[in-house]
Each structure stands twice: as structure tokens, then as C-alpha cells.
Amino acid sequence: MKKKLVTLTITGALVLGGTSIVSPTINAAGNGPNYGGNETVNTSILRTHDEMVNFLEKQEAKQNDMELEIIGQTVKGRDLHLVKYMKNPENPTILFLTQQHGNEALTTEGSLEFIKHLGTGKTKGVLDNVNVLIVPMLNADGAMGDVDFSLEDYTASGDRNMTRYNALEVDLNRDHIDRIQPETKALHDNVLGAYDIDYMIDLHHQGTQSERDGDLVSGSILYPTTENVDPEVAYKSKQLGAVVFDEIDSKGWGHLGKYNGGSAETISRNGIAVEYGISTLLFEMRGMSDHFYESYVLGQKSNGYLIKQTVNTLDATVSAIADGSIESKDVSFWDTLSFQTTRPSE
Ligand SMILES: [Zn+2]
Questions:
Q1: Residue 19's pLDDT is what?
Q2: Does the pLDDT value for residue 196 go beyond 80?
């Protein structure tokens, strides 16, 4: 049975799909309604793949420094894109990857806002000192619900359901060694293996009930934890995390925990750090846009601060690499940052 939600009129500034985010609702740390059966969780307000491509093509036409490349196709034939700001190949380079899991959508929305932001001139000069690569919506088929298995039990209403898996029901973030799926193969062949990349942030969404020190978190972060990673790569990953933590945790709406992740190298955070010597950070933001498990889905009143969390993360890390401040970043906060735990259900 597909669950029907009460559909409410969306008011205020949180209308997505091509219009800008004016001012996010600022909630206390990690707040924002959970899915409880009567909030709006409607996928129609999230950009479709076509709308994203349209947005990127318009930005490319407007922005001199931006190049748009097609790096491959999904199982169902959707084009996968790389957004590239590369004035000087000698500069340090950061890659942002979004939506390996198709139901984790706000990081893509945030990265598109950031792309627009890079074209406004407010970051003038920054792109002279850092190269920025963005691969948005890697799992475009899962994001569009265009898959070879049933999404009947999924929670969200709207014009489509969204799933973690690609069209063949494979978790792309377990395919970074074998690269059997066309999405992961495209990422490795035409991005990771094609550019000299120093840093990467892999952007995801987690469930809604994680907390740290008694408060629900707005997200959680983690560096590569496989023992095969070069210690210097791991150290720089921790510095990347320090930039993100200082940027986000100081905000009224921001509260980050440490993600409790494993050491498997099939996962991008670990495998890419080992294979390419790229310093990686996993960022898991609160709440998914759709899932068959209701407790993972977050009401869309939280969209504003989560999109802002993405924009701030990208902005802060790009700036810290451009001005070199990342290289003197203290990593000791990691020793005291608690792992997030799951709030017991009532
Ligand atoms: Zn994910």
C-alpha cells in the first residue's frame, strides 16, 4: 500500500525547482519536523534531472569560468554531468559529489545554489586560487524513480518516488572498487582518474533520529577510516572536516556529530582516499527526501536549513583551500567529537 500524505500548500521561501532560496527557516540545532504522517513530503518541489540539466546549461552560458561536461550516462541513459571551474591546473582542486543515493536530494539542491553563487561575483578572486569540480546527482535514475523494481512502499507523495539504489537496485556507494555500474565507472574514468584532485566531499543524507550530546544533529561527518589510507591523506581529510565543523557547528541551526562508519574500501570515503590519495570527507545531512522506512524521511520544512548547510559547506571549504588556511587547521576537535547515537523511539 502506498501511503497518502496530507498535502499542504507550500508557503514562504522554500519553493525549489529553479527558484532561489531566499531565506531559510532558522531552527534550533537539528530541529525541523520529522515525518509523522501529516507533514508535507512532496518530491515535486525537488528538481528533476531535466530541470537540473537546464539549470546547469543556463549557468554555463552566463558564467565565463564554468564549463559543463558530460562524463557518461546512467543505466537508463540520462547524461551525467561534471561542473568544472579550472582556471589553473596547478591550483589545488576540490571535488563535491552529490546524490550517489537518489533519495538524498537536498545536497544537490545546495550544490546548484552554490554554482549560482560562484557566478555572482561575490566570490571574486577565489577561483584564481582553487579549482572546483562538482558532480551533482550521480544516481539520476534513482532520483527520478526510474528503476527496475517497485517503489510502491515509499513514503513521499509527488510526481515520483526517489530511491537510494540505481536502476538495477545497486548501491553505487558500494561499487567504488568494482565499478560495474555505468554511474560509478563514469565518475572514476572521467573525473577521479582524469584530474589531479586534492580534496573531496561526498554529500549524503542520513536518518532523522541521530543525536549528539542530547540534541538531534543537522548532520554528521567522517574522514577515511581504512588502515590502508596514507597518514597524510587522512590528516588532510581531518583538516577538511575541521573547516566544515567550524563553519556549520557555530550556526544556530547547525549541530554535527561524528559518523560511525566502517572501513570498507567499496565506499567512496575510504576507497577513493586509498586509490587516488584524495583527502575525503563524508557529510551525512539530516533526513532523506523519500524512503520506505518512514523514520528516515524528513518533513520538507527543514529543506531551507539543510540546503543552506550544503551551500555553507561548499563555500567555506573552497575559501579555506583558496586562501591556504586549511593547511594550518587544527584537527584536535576530532578527538573529543562524540559519535552520534540514535535517539530511542518513544
Ligand atoms: Zn547516502
A1: 38
A2: yes
